[in-house]
Structures are given as C-alpha cells and as structure tokens.
Here is the input.
Amino acid sequence: MSRFEKSSEIKVAVIGYGGAFNMGKYHLETGSKVGMIPTAVVDVDSKRLEAAKKDFPDIETYSSVEKMLEKSSANLVILITPHNTHAKLAVQCLKENRNVISEKPMAVTTEECDAMIKQAEKNNLMLSVFHNRHWDGSIIEAVQRIKKGEIGDVFRIEAHMGGYSNPGDWWRTSKSISGGILYDWGVHLLEYSMQIINSEAIEVTGFARKGFWAEKTKWGKDTNEDEAFAVIRCKNDTWLTLCISSIDSNPKKGMLEITGTDGTYIMNYDTWEIVTHKNGIEYITKGRNPQSDGALLFYKNIVEHLVKGKELIITPQWARQFIHILDLADQSAKKRIGLKA
Here is the structure.
C-alpha cells in the first residue's frame, strides 16, 4: 500500500453532506484535527453544497461522484450516505485509486462487504469503517474490568436497545435502504460485544416481528421490523443475543448485560454496574465511565496507518463480521431456521 509522507498529504472528500446529524462537517473537522486536509464535498442537494461552502470556504463542491473522481485530487473518500449505497460507492472510488472510509454499517450484505474488500485488495488501498464507538469510555471500562476477572469467565452477553415509538419516515426506517432495525445501533452493540467475546460467530438464528408500524410510515411494507432478535453462537462456546425494538414498553436497563461465572456487568453509556453474590448475599458496585473521543482516536489511527504504517485497528474484515451476522439473522428470520456462519 502506498504511504504518505505526512498527514497534510491526505486530502479528504466526503460523499454526502446531509443535514441529519451534520456528519459531513463532523468528519471533515475531526480529520483536520489530525492534520488531514478537507478538500471536496459531493452532494445531490445544492443547498447542502452551499452549506459546505459556508463551513469550509476553500472546499471543492460537486454534484456527482463521477465529477469529483475526475477533477479532484482527493485521495481519501468518506462515505456518509444511506446504507444500501456504501458498497457501490466504495467499489467505484477504490477503482479510481482512492482510499475509502465508510460510515457504519459497512454495507447491508456479506456479499457487498466482500466486493468492497476484494477491490481494496486488488488496488492495494486502505478500506475502513467509521466504528468510532470502538473507543467509547463505556466499552473501554468494561473490557478493562472484565480482563481483571471482576465477573469471572464471560459466557453470555445480552445486547439490547428499545422503546415504544413510531420510527418515523426518514430513510433509516426503510428496510431496503437501511438493512433493517438491527443495522443502526445494532452494529454498535455487536462491535462492543465482540471486543469482549473475542471469538468468531459460527451459528446465527434470527427472529423478527413486522407490521405494527408499517401503516404509520410512508414506506408501507418496506418499513423496518418492529422488533428483531438474533442469537449468535461463537466458536469459544460463548453466546450473544441482540435485540432492537420499537414496540418495547419496558426495555431492559443497560446496553449490554455481560454475564460471567462470578457476576454480571451491566454496561450503560455513562455508567456501569456489577452484581455479584457471596455467601448468599447480593453485592452491587456502581461507577461512571471515562470520557473518550472515539472519532478523534479513529482518525488518529487512520493517519498513523497511512503515514507511519501502523496497524489499522478497524480493518474491513473486523467490520465485515457484524454485517455477516446481521445478514444471516435476516435470512434466518425469513427462513425460520438457524444458519451456520
């Protein structure tokens, strides 16, 4: 892979400057903190291109990816577009010898991930996925405490997030565009979990309930599942469940409930809790998680990889495993059988 002499040689283009979360600005500003140069923005909405110009007066703006690839000197492209576009755009940019970072999730299917990886390897380019939550203080604290043996040997993780609310009409509610209800926060929860389990999935069973919200959104039958649930068996004999729901009137506390032979660790975003028993008495220990800027740490690693040749932490293979699990869970739910990974 070709390297850069210094971070300022890394010229960044973002595809997608949509108003939701203002992620285009966020990526460019965070990258600039580690020395990369905001260079170009691509968006089909002229108003968003005007917004980019206000945020970055020297930025190049393009209404199409083709024009940007033809005219811009940008050598790192960041994809901030709907989930079902990631694979096509990544392959297109990689073919034109641009390094690529995709917003999470990496893609919607395993096949799409494999196409992205194959093209990156063919052109000897970097491909990564913006799993900034890899460095969240909540998971850093959990990993450290579990490694110290505070809950014994982990054998089960229950990852969950939910509530009771109409999911709305934006594209993240469309099954065909987003991938489904598990593809947003579910990817983060899987990424957290696999840092703890540290073993590959070997079997996935999926369940889904759909239809309650369908008549209440513009997507109709293409609306995401009301709730989806996956059971993942791992090679080291641990197992993991993932549940994301929009019809749960009493969601469980915490994002992850990690059960070990000596106790249970409940991981929230800001706080943690450990429940143990000794001589028939329950003990509860609580604390707050440290603060962490995962986006900055992500881009620091990108620069160190491209300039100094340091190991890439969020490899495409690392990100692929979460999509493979979700893809299999979706297939399993439709077929009503468990599938080998």
